[in-house]
Structures are given as C-alpha cells and as structure tokens.
Design a protein that fits this description.
By secondary structure, the protein is of the alpha+beta class. The protein has two helices and eight strands; from the N terminus they run H-E-E-E-E-E-E-E-E-H.
C-alpha cells in the first residue's frame, strides 16, 4: 500500500508540474506578443507611406498572427497577414533613420488581399514576405527583434 501511495504522490507531483509549465509557456508567448506589437508600433514609419495611405493597422494577435492593413484615400484596402509559426527570418533594407523591414516566411504563407481597387478589382494572392516601413532602427534592435521572433516561433510550434 505504501508503494501505491508513493507512486500516486509522484504522479500527482509530475502532473502539477506539467500544468504549471503549460501556463508558463503561454505566459511567455503572451509577453512576447505584447512586446512584438509594441515594438512594431514604435518602429512603424507612417511618413514613408504613399500620401494616398490615410491610415493603417498593424496588429499581432494572441493566436500568433501578424496583420498589416493599409487604407487608401480612394477606398482601396490592402491586407497582409501571416502566422508567426511560418516565420523564417527577418531582413532589413535601409539606413538607421528609415528603411523597410521584411518578414520572410517558409513558403508562400503571407495572405495578400486587395479590396475596393477600381483598377484591378478584388485580388487574393499569397506571398513569401511582408514588408513594413520603419524609422529610427538600430542594428541591436533588429537582432533583438529577430531573436525574439525565432524564439517565439519555436514556442508556438511546440504549443500546436
């Protein structure tokens, strides 16, 4: 009977550790998503966009999607979205004052949609990268952002 009780205690202890670890992983992912959302909002350069862009939305959801939407003055809307599980690498073209941040995916995993385009109509397609204009970005910011995205990518893959 003592052996059974000891085994039961060990099983309960292991089960409680697994439950606590599951909450820790989710907490880590939530913290990283909040950091990514905040950092992208700080780095985004709305002055680099075309004058026809009236507003934009740049969101990182708690389900692991990065979404970028641009609204033009003529009514056209461009929408880009990809799951961070599909993230491969981060690339940057520009200077430390202005540039473009490229989110590269493993394949054609970026959803590209265009609405209300009077010239080409509504278009749905796929791409292998998403680009956002940035301002005042340092090399250390790029490396930190890239490291966090890779780490978060691994955690999201383990979670699924």
């Amino acid at each position: 009977m003592k052996k059974f009780t000891l085994n039961l205690k060990i099983c309960l202890w292991v089960l409680s550790c697994l439950i606590f670890m599951a909450f820790k992983v989710q907490s880590f992912i939530d913290e990283e998503l909040v950091y990514l959302q905040k950092r992208l909002a700080e780095l985004y350069d709305h002055t680099a966009e075309n004058q026809e862009v009236t507003r934009y939305e740049l969101n990182v959801t708690n389900s692991g999607f990065c979404r970028y939407k641009r609204f033009f003055s003529n009514g056209k809307v461009e929408y880009f979205s990809f799951n961070l599980v599909k993230f491969k690498a981060l690339d940057y073209a520009g200077t430390d004052t202005t540039g473009r941040l490229f989110f590269l995916t493993k394949g054609e995993d970026v959803i590209v949609q265009t609405y209300n385009d009077k010239k080409d109509g509504d278009v749905d397609s796929m791409a292998s990268f998403m680009v956002i204009p940035t301002k005042k970005i340092e090399p250390k910011d790029l490396s930190e952002l890239s490291e966090r995205l890779v780490k978060m990518n691994g955690q999201l893959q383990v979670q699924k």
